[in-house]
Predict the structure of Putative metal-dependent phosphoesterases (PHP family).
Amino acid sequence: MTIPQDPKPCIDLHCHTTASDGALDPEQLVARAAERGVSHLAITDHDTIDGLARARAASAVLGLELINGVELSCVWRSHTIHVVGLDFDHANGDFLEALARQNDNRWQRARLIADKLHKLKVDNLLERATAMAGGDVPGRPHFAQVLVEAEVVPKVAHAFKRLLGAGKPGDVKACWPELDEVVQWINAAGGIAVLAHPRKYRMTATRLRDLTADFRRAGGRAIEVSVSGQSSGDLGFVAELARREQLLASQGSDFHFPGAPWCELGKIVKMPEGLEPVWHHFRQPVGV
């Protein structure tokens, strides 16, 4: 089965707003998606659905179909992994409690990042990063923006290279739950658990196959096959993982901010044929 791409529907199931580490607020993001021809959108902020109600109101005005979404952090064999939840019940009490725990983890991590960067002597670093995040939990991109504003570094990229990237002082690991627990949260809320951007974990092919198999055994049902920044080789490899584990195929731009054409809303490379789209299995299926 060929996943429909052009002209309709245009489906983007991975993007971020100011509710986590995105640059646009929910209304701005929905408007940008509509301008770019997106017909079905899932906002997948990190460990929160705080932007969902505002996005839903904006999408209703613009005639864009909004799918409930979130991107949850977890751990698999000491690796931090992201699992996207789609089409869940956003009023499920147990799920909301789990998100509250994730939010607490994120605040703890933000405070540790600020402590690690204390030697830079940037006044009110945590408070300024929180303001950059619109009052929500600041992530590393928000700290990077403050460091640019404080003239510690010239650009955000330099902040990550020197201070916030992997292995640097501000690269603080949070105490995330295990992979199978997060998958269970999503399933119990009636959603579909999707293994996010598998090639971004920088694992060997063998280890990634192990991750995908464990994810499926834990109850995961889908994998992001087409995401931003992938080579054609990566696209083919992840498609084969989907076939191997009989996982549904998802896609998304992983949009965070304007000005990055490689991860623009709705700009998604067509997936290989022979894959079953995750949106055919939503409670209100798309394109069936």
Notes: Residues 93-116 form the longest helix (24 residues). Residues 1-7 have pLDDT under 50 and may be disordered. The chain has two domains: 11-91+179-280, 100-163.
